[in-house]
Specification:
alpha/beta; Rossmann fold; four-stranded parallel sheet; binds pyridoxal-5'-phosphate; binds zinc ion
């Protein structure tokens, strides 16, 4: 018996059945929030029973909005590494720092957590085509999961999307439509297309309430890792803010089920050059006001308007007693370099979490005594040129063993 009970509208609180193929609330156009029989799960299922299942997002199946387990489309996403990084902790200035590397997901970014759910729903509902708008990572994820499901994909990306991301999507067989303009403009056009009914594609973009739920698994994985003793703070890069909203939902569900007794402070990090969530959080407004586009190295976070999600993000940050902070590109590059010193190859947008935490501690907004989890969200291969420009491949080439030995000897100290 599924514990997924349907949706409630964040706006008008209208309720919808679990088998309905929905995006936004048909009554008022607001975002929908999946509802579960948490009391039933608490009664029937032990938290430690989940913990012994095969790894990945789907070990939490009862907490995901899926009705037909046979429809599940998976590439082995989730349960990404949790790495204690003491050197990085000293650099950042906290007692205990854990890096959760979502770069280890199948397509190299956090997006796989949510796209596995939307691809599954596309199969349940009988669609033939998956689609999304994207700054790049979502596009490659949608393309991969469509391929895995034997479906087609169409992705809409800004024309300046990094080549590795669009290459990955194309190689998975996606049809790529490059669009002029910045992400907020493309998002508005794409959503207009989807809601016009002109195409019968399964939307894996910002309005899909099923997809969002996949992000909750961050919270479950983190709590389980610490034997249900949650950390003081979880820091995550934010573009639309969905990851913040759903991670917070996961922690809230665990408390409601009596699995945990605390929740972490959720902390959103954006590029200072593109920080609409940060600004509105500190301005104390209920909605996020769009800002003008400014360039940043963190291209996946270049959204100037989080739209409907913005208000939900502010609620999650405030309810959790969290914070929001912007970082300069130079701090992001420093964070990427420090992550590399730990053996982690992370794209700029994924590395901002480290830079944000460091700044929070320096400004006295996070305590040095905290145990913190920073999520790094995308592989360095995703924005390869940004990294390639920071190293020099030596020009010389050794031609035989003698030269090789000479080169090695020259390195002896
Ligand atoms: C690498 C990376 N990190 C973080 C995010 C932010 O995710 P969200 O939209 O959930 O805030 C994105 C979104 O595109 C991303 O590509
Ligand atoms: Zn509504």
């Amino acid at each position: 018996m599924p514990y997924f009970k349907g949706f409630a509208c964040f706006g008008c609180r209208a309720a919808y059945r679990p088998d309905q193929d929905l995006l936004l609330c048909p009554a008022c156009g607001q975002l929908l929030d999946a509802q579960y029989d948490l009391e039933g799960i608490r009664r029937d299922l032990d938290r430690d029973r989940f913990a012994t299942r095969p790894v990945g997002v789907w070990r939490w199946a009862e907490l995901l909005p899926v009705l037909d387990p046979a429809a599940i489309v998976t590439l082995g996403e989730g349960d990404t590494p949790m790495l204690r990084c003491d050197r990085l902790a000293r650099h950042v200035g906290v007692r205990e720092l854990w890096v959760k590397s979502d770069a280890s997901n199948p397509t190299g970014s956090l997006k796989d957590r949510s796209i596995t759910v939307s691809a599954t729903k596309a199969r349940e509902f009988g669609y033939q085509v998956l689609s999304c708008d994207s700054t790049g990572n979502k596009a490659s994820s949608v393309a991969a999961y469509a391929a895995r499901a034997g479906l087609r994909s169409v992705v809409f990306c800004p024309e300046d999307t990094p080549t590795p991301k669009v290459t990955q999507a194309l190689f998975f067989g996606a049809t790529l439509i490059r669009v002029r303009g910045h992400y907020a403009e493309i998002n508005a056009m794409y959503r207009k297309l989807i809601h016009s009914g002109a195409v019968h594609w399964y939307d894996c973009g910002t309005d899909n309430p099923f997809r969002y739920e996949g992000k909750k698994t961050y919270a479950y994985e983190i709590a389980r890792h610490f034997d249900w003793q949650v950390p003081d703070r979880v820091v995550h890069p934010a573009n639309g803010g969905m990851s913040i909203v759903k991670t917070w939902k996961g922690f809230s569900e665990m408390r409601a089920m009596g699995w945990t007794s605390h929740s972490p402070r959720m902390t959103a990090v954006q590029a200072a050059a593109c920080d609409p969530i940060v600004r509105s959080f500190h301005a104390g407004t209920a909605e996020v006001a769009p800002i003008q586009k400014r360039p940043t190295i963190a291209g996946a976070l270049a959204g100037t308007d989080p739209g409907l999600l913005g208000a939900r993000t502010l609620v999650a940050l405030r309810e959790s007693g969290g914070d929001a902070i912007g970082v300069d590109d130079s701090e992001t590059v420093e964070a990427m370099t420090r992550l590399a010193e730990e053996g982690l190859f992370i794209e700029p947008s994924g590395a901002v979490a480290i830079a944000g935490l460091r700044r929070m501690v320096a400004e006295g907004r996070a305590s040095p005594d905290e145990r913190v989890v920073c999520v790094v969200t995308g592989s360095g291969f995703k924005d390869f040129d940004r990294i390639a420009e920071r190293v020099t491949i030596p020009e010389g080439v050794v031609k035989d063993y003698d030269e090789l030995l000479g080169a090695a000897r020259a390195l002896q100290v």
